[in-house]
């Protein structure tokens, strides 16, 4: 992690594409010029060598990196099928291999259960136990790679196991591994949490990553997220890790369709430039 007096700031290149390729190189070069400390990219089951080349490119630019991924029905850590849970372990280990190849330090995302897969009932104790077991097992693999898994709670329309910081804290404590931590995403919290300060204080003991996301997934600061509460409380709990902008567009049609992004919010470069200015102003205001 960069040695900074404030939290390092990253930008998620999903605003352009979910595909790992050399087409990301000029994008990362411009993000470096704008002033970002690092980038975040999506990890799938692609060629490990492609992630290694990308990591070498980022190293030459002096950029750090984090990653995001999601579990699907066939790799669902909360499944009651031992075979599917075994596949979940293999999937997450593969994500760690790719993250390690590009020298990333964090893999975030809703890896507690399958994305957009619903059981038509409330979360069950066994599902939390299954998920925690998988995460604990993968935590050992992440530790040897120097990677932290930052598990993400999603809104009720995208998952059912972990919607709130209370549920996520319960799962992380049940997983009981130092390399299995939590992420706070302002977009999802805007839907699910009563008050941001309470939510942040709840997750603070296991918080390792923050996504700075506007209510409409556009430019941070342009919407109605309670940003003053967010930055003030993060400063109060002593958060000093990545603050990464996650904003979406329809640049990558397949990815956009998969997460129900049906319109453009802002131009990605406007998001990158104005979002960085906004975060730096808030960091200066609250010393975080």
Automatic annotation (TrEMBL):
<dbReference type="InterPro" id="IPR050312">
    <property type="entry name" value="IolE/XylAMocC-like"/>
</dbReference>
<dbReference type="GO" id="GO:0016853">
    <property type="term" value="F:isomerase activity"/>
</dbReference>
<dbReference type="InterPro" id="IPR013022">
    <property type="entry name" value="Xyl_isomerase-like_TIM-brl"/>
</dbReference>
<keyword id="KW-0413">Isomerase</keyword>
<protein>
    <submittedName>
        <fullName>Sugar phosphate isomerase/epimerase</fullName>
    </submittedName>
</protein>
<dbReference type="InterPro" id="IPR036237">
    <property type="entry name" value="Xyl_isomerase-like_sf"/>
</dbReference>
<feature type="domain" description="Xylose isomerase-like TIM barrel">
    <location>
        <begin position="30"/>
        <end position="257"/>
    </location>
</feature>
<dbReference type="Pfam" id="PF01261">
    <property type="entry name" value="AP_endonuc_2"/>
</dbReference>
């Amino acid at each position: 992690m960069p040695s900074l007096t404030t939290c390092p700031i990253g930008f998620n290149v999903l605003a352009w594409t979910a595909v790992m390729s050399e087409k990301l190189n000029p994008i990362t070069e411009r993000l470096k010029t704008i002033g970002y400390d690092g980038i975040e990219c999506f990890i799938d089951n692609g060629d490990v060598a492609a992630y290694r080349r990308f990591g070498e490119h980022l190293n030459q630019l002096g950029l750090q990196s984090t990653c995001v991924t999601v579990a699907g029905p066939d790799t669902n850590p909360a499944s009651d099928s031992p075979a599917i849970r075994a596949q979940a372990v293999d999937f997450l280990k593969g994500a760690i291999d790719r993250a390690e190849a590009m020298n990333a330090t964090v893999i975030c995302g809703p890896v507690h259960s399958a994305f957009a897969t619903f059981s038509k009932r409330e979360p069950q104790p066994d599902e939390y136990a299954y998920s925690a077991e998988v995460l604990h097992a993968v935590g050992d693999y992440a530790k040897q790679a120097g990677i932290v898994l930052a598990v993400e709670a999603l809104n009720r329309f995208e998952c059912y196991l972990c919607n709130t910081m209370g549920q996520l804290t319960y799962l992380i404590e049940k997983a009981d591994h130092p390399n299995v931590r939590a992420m706070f995403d302002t977009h999802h919290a805007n839907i699910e949490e009563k008050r941001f300060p309470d939510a942040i204080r709840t997750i603070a003991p296991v918080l390792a990553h923050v996504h700075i996301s506007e209510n409409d997934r556009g430019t941070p600061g342009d919407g109605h997220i309670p940003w003053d509460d967010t930055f003030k409380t993060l400063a109060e709990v002593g958060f000093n890790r990545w603050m990464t902008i996650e904003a979406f567009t329809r640049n990558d049609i397949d990815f956009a369709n998969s997460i129900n992004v049906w319109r453009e919010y802002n131009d990605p470069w406007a998001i990158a430039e104005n979002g960085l200015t906004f975060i730096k102003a808030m960091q200066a205001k609250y010393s975080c």
